[in-house]
Write a structure and sequence with these properties.
Keywords: mRNA processing, mRNA splicing, Nucleus, Spliceosome. One of its GO terms (cellular component) is spliceosomal complex. By secondary structure, the chain is mostly helical. 50% of the residues lie in helices and 4% in strands. Strands 1-2 form a two-stranded antiparallel ribbon. It has a two-stranded antiparallel sheet with strand order 3-4. Strands 5-6 form a two-stranded antiparallel ribbon. α5 packs across α7, α6 packs across α7 and α7 packs parallel to α9.
Length: 320
């Protein structure tokens, strides 16, 4: 059943709805998850927001929801928490590193000042829906999604973000420019990454994170890429030769490597058999030679005995 909105001005004054509408005063009230005073922001960022001249003077004069939206439209140009070049984190380590946003402060950005201003207005569900579906500026939508990420229960994040994961509207999120992202990519970063430039989002419990990862894999299943087929140029062959040529061209790389290994093994076996035949033929030729027996007799006659010396010397001594 669709939500029946009668008050298109998105004001805090809520009118009664006709029977059958699911929107009531109770569910139009948006719950705040976590710290209801700090909006779960980093302590250093919140301190700089509350002490900045822009928040205390300029934004203090804005009293309504529409005035804040107009200010976002004219003033927000990026989504970083600090202005470009205002915060020096070089040389800082440990808890003072730039990732955790706890080191030396800087000039807090207009975007985060307006984000906290929205928090002070205590937005309703209808007003947040108007933020994320606004058509004038992508930065209005982005601050609406960031408001949801900081203030809403982790179990409700998927329901808020799911229908916008394919949104291709782009914006430059880096201070000074140079990093363009679509709404869909920003939301995926909000869901699955804890860091956002030099600050951290509230942590999502592990079971809820696993459920969102499972839903993401079901929504975007992994694509298995097939191996590209080899393009074989056509040649002027007859039908049989063309079929043989195509069959050779369609062989996979694995079969080709296997053929190379088989050819190498066959050549190795051929060389081994050839050497064996050569040695065998040489031994057979020595046995058939008429000089082999004479050479053996000579070796026997000149062999030395360990006790009496050579056989000739032993025969000479016997004659004497």
């Amino acid at each position: 059943m669709e939500v029946n909105y009668e008050n298109e001005g998105y004001d805090n004054d809520y009118q009664s709805k006709p029977k059958g509408s699911i929107l009531t005063r109770k569910n139009n009230t948006l719950p705040i998850w976590g710290n209801e005073r700090t909006m779960n922001l980093n302590t250093l960022i919140l301190t700089n927001i509350q002490s900045s001249h822009y928040f205390k003077v300029n934004l203090y004069e804005l009293k309504t929801y529409h005035e804040v939206i107009d200010e976002i439209y004219y003033k927000v140009q990026h989504l970083e928490p600090w202005e470009k070049g205002s915060r020096k984190t070089s040389g800082q380590t440990g808890m003072c590193g730039g990732v955790r946003g706890v080191g030396a402060g800087g000039i807090v950005s207009t975007a985060f000042c307006l984000l906290y201003k929205l928090f002070t207005l205590k937005l309703t569900r209808k007003q947040v829906t108007g933020l994320i579906t606004h058509c004038d500026s992508p930065y209005i939508r982005a601050l609406g999604f960031m408001y949801i990420r900081y203030t809403q229960p982790p179990g409700d994040l998927w329901d808020w973000y799911e229908s916008f994961l394919d949104d291709e509207e782009e914006m430059d999120v880096r201070a000074g420019g140079g990093q363009t992202m679509s709404i869909g990519d920003i939301l995926k970063s909000f869901l699955f990454k804890l860091e956002w430039f030099s600050t951290l989002f509230p942590r999502i419990p592990v079971p809820i994170q696993q459920q969102m990862e499972k839903k993401m894999s079901e929504k975007y299943p992994p694509v298995v890429e097939e191996a590209p087929r080899r393009n074989v140029p056509e040649k002027n062959f007859n039908s049989r030769e063309r079929d043989d040529y195509r069959s050779r061209g369609d062989l996979s790389d694995q079969s080709r490597s296997r053929d190379r290994i088989d050819r190498r093994e066959r050549s190795h076996r051929d060389y081994r058999d050839r050497d064996y035949d050569r040695k065998t033929s040489r031994a057979n030729s020595r046995e058939r030679s008429p000089y082999v027996s004479r050479r053996d007799d000579y070796k026997k006659s000149t062999s030395r005995s360990p006790k009496y010396g050579s056989s000739r010397r032993r025969d000479r001594d016997d004659y004497r």
